[in-house]
VanZ family protein (Mucilaginibacter rigui), 131 residues
Amino acid sequence: MKQTLKYYGPAILWALFILIICAVPFSAPGPPDLFFPGFDKLVHCVLFFVLSVLYCYGSIRKWQTRSIRIAIAMKNTVVLISYGALIEYLQMRVFTWRSGDWNDLLADTIGSCMGIFGVLLTSNAINHENS
């Protein structure tokens, strides 16, 4: 457990932040989209983008590599999408003041994939430049 916290500590803290944000009841009067239609989906996408970058950073540190391998990226993708599905399930069943939505899960998935793709692209570019 200590090793997990050593490498994945920032990602775990961000995942807890996401869980808290997704559990808070919003009872603001007015339209459900705060600034523009789809703002909620953008927030989901950005939250999971940051989570995926932090999670990939933990994987790079854990495996002591200069870039993330495709197999690890695929495992990270499965973990992140599962976490997004868990949050949506909790919003449907436990946090009844919130509503689970397939579109939110799609936004979580897109944000996760964008973050992992960004880490793959950046780490490969850095390694290509150094060699």
Remarks:
- Residues 2-23+38-130 form one domain.
